[in-house]
Structure to design on (136 residues):
């Protein structure tokens, strides 16, 4: 198995607050204690092999991510009863990928949270995020 020394997702076992909730042949669904107070129930799916970003995943890792996503949804619905979910990957610094190990966010969302209704679509429609016009 290919791991990268110093990668927090390759070395997550060294973090006592990081927990494996589910796993299959190629991926883990993890939850971190520090996030549970703000993002109740949130977690990530990561490949067991170090993949810097989502575009490097194998077909098997994609299929196993799907399998864990379905398990996580069922688990989170039973445990937390969310009103919806925000799902996603960040790829590259401009997208806010701060850890260079592919990780798929599963974030339960609740109608009573301050940012309810402000999912991915909200942020991409912000006019203040428009790129400067380039001269042709």
């Amino acid at each position: 198995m290919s791991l990268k020394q110093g990668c927090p997702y390759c070395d997550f076992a060294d973090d006592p607050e990081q927990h494996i909730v589910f796993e299959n042949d190629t991926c883990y669904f993890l939850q971190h204690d520090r996030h549970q107070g703000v993002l109740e129930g949130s977690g990530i799916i990561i490949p067991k092999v170090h993949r810097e970003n989502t575009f490097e995943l194998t077909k098997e890792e994609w299929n196993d991510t799907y399998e864990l996503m379905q398990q996580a949804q069922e688990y989170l619905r039973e445990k937390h009863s969310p009103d919806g979910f925000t799902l996603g990957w960040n790829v590259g610094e401009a997208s806010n990928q701060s850890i260079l190990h592919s990780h798929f966010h599963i974030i339960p969302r609740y109608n009573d949270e301050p940012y309810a209704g402000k999912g991915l679509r909200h942020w991409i429609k912000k006019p203040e995020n428009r790129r400067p016009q380039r001269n042709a």
About this structure: The mean pLDDT is 88. The longest strand covers residues 18-23.
